[in-house]
UniProtKB/TrEMBL annotation:
InterPro entries: Lon_proteolytic, Ribosomal_Su5_D2-typ_SF, Ribsml_uS5_D2-typ_fold_subgr
Cross-referenced Pfam families: Lon_C
Domain of life, source organism: Bacteria
Biological processes annotated in GO: proteolysis
Domain Lon proteolytic: 154-247
SUPFAM superfamilies, A to Z: Ribosomal protein S5 domain 2-like
Protein name: PDZ domain-containing protein
GO MF annotations in UniProt: ATP-dependent peptidase activity; serine-type endopeptidase activity
Amino acid sequence: MPNVSRRTRILAVCAAVVAALLAVAVFAPLPVSIVEPGLTADVLGADQGTQIITVSGTQVRKTSGQLRMVTIQATAPDASVHFTDVWKAWFKKDQAVMPRDSVYPSGGSVKDIEKANQKEMTDSQDAATTAALKHLGLSPAKVTVDLHLEDVGGPSAGLLFTLGIIDKIDGDGRGGDLTGGRTIAGTGTIDGSGKVGAVGGVPLKEQAARRDGATVFLVPRGECSDAKAELPSGLRLIPVDTLDGALDALDALRSGGRLPAC
């Protein structure tokens, strides 16, 4: 048998170690989620046969057009994502890879995460109601707003809920619709004072919006860079910082006035 040099043996061992590490890298689960465009819902309409926004204690008007809240959908929090999944997602325009902690920041069990997401949605709906009634000068002691949307969690529909409540009660303040008859989508958190906050996943949400017929997309101004990077054809981008700014932009859109730009 020919002699095998010490150098050759060392190289063979190193190659075996590298191969083992590569195998682990390929097959070991990664702390990421694969996300893609999710459902959208017209907050002026119904979800599973129930109106998404129901108002009592004041007159409600008939609306036209659509205000569509948008979502992303991600691999389940307990699902394993591997290198091959990430590799495939890299080449798909309708998929992205995000740190799991940014998609499911609460951690814990699946049940804990679902509970946390539902609380964020409830808190968002409460803030949207507060911001809308404050803008309209209506007392929450006299006017009741119920928001119903199944199978959606998180706070990112806050802005659209607020606009939907205002459109249901007051429209543009002159008897017309906030939408001007258009299909308008958007995303953004909101607090009780009407400040709009960032949400993440904007490029995929834009895809969902355009897929479902939107021609205008409201985006938190701080996410303009992401929003412009992969803006779908036929979708007009409008950045907003506050509820008042969003209402002013929609007024300008209806009247042909100057719109804010990213």
